[in-house]
Amino acid sequence: MQYFQDYMHGNVCFGCGTENPEGLQIKSYWEGDRAICIWESEKKYHGWANLMAGGIIATIIDCHCMGFAMADAYKREGRELDSLPAYRYATGTMNIKYLLPTPNNQPVKLIAWVTEVKGRKTVIQCEVWSGENKTAEAEVIGIRVFDSSKEEDKSSIFAEGK
User: Fold this and answer.
1) d(Cα 23, Cα 123) in Å, to the nearest integer?
2) Domains of the chain: residue spans and CATH
3) Which pLDDT score is estimated for 14?
């Protein structure tokens, strides 16, 4: 399986950073034109007893969508995830609707797809599923904040190895 986050070198993010051993360690991958993430929570991420905390749900949506924005940009350019230039995205806005309580004792599945790309902006729809129930949905706007081919970005905090 080719996970988007494995190609985001130097990523120490709490939600998706492969270089953050105490983080959530989400992993996203392609399924057709959609991005999928299957994630299993832990007891320490309860909101109410046996229900996932809303902030954790927001974090996994955010990180899933930003990794997907990067992967989608590469795919639109016909490139592999390990090719240059390297891109990184940050959240511009995120609007989440919590539809049902999300159980904390079973895996959740995130499904995301792109609805618009305009310049550095990518608009993504994302759903959170617990078993057969859609428990949350979101619209997330990702902004490309780093492009390794741009001279002004080469000294950025997003540059490889920083």
Assistant:
1) 25
2) 4-148 (3.10.129.10)
3) 97
DSSP reduced 3-state for 89: strand
Structure tokens at 61: 């949506």
pLDDT band for 156, please (50, 70, 90 cuts): low
What's the pTM value of the predicted model, to 2 decimals?
A: 0.94
Beta-bridge partner residues of 97: 137
* Environment class of 26 (CB within 10 Å of its CB; exposed 0-12, middle 13-18, buried 19+): buried
pLDDT in tens, 67-126: 999 999 999 999 999 999 999 999 999 999 999 999 999 999 999 999 999 999 999 999
CA distance 115 to 147: 22
